[in-house]
Hints:
The chain has two helices and no strands. The chain is mainly α.
Amino acid sequence: xxxxxxxxxxxxxxxxxxxxxxxxxxxxxxxxxxxxxxxxxxxxxxxxxxxxxxxxxxxxxxxxxxxxx
Length: 69
């Protein structure tokens, strides 16, 4: 479909409301997905750091027990 003017392009042959609404909704969903993914990534990295700290403390405690015996 070719458009003769910019106004015809934005009008989308009389279906502008539906076309631009679908583009806007799709963009909104993608933005929400990106924000959610970023938040989940930060949460997972934080859990990994906590687990590594916990494991290191357990190793240190086990070494102290071995040295104490």
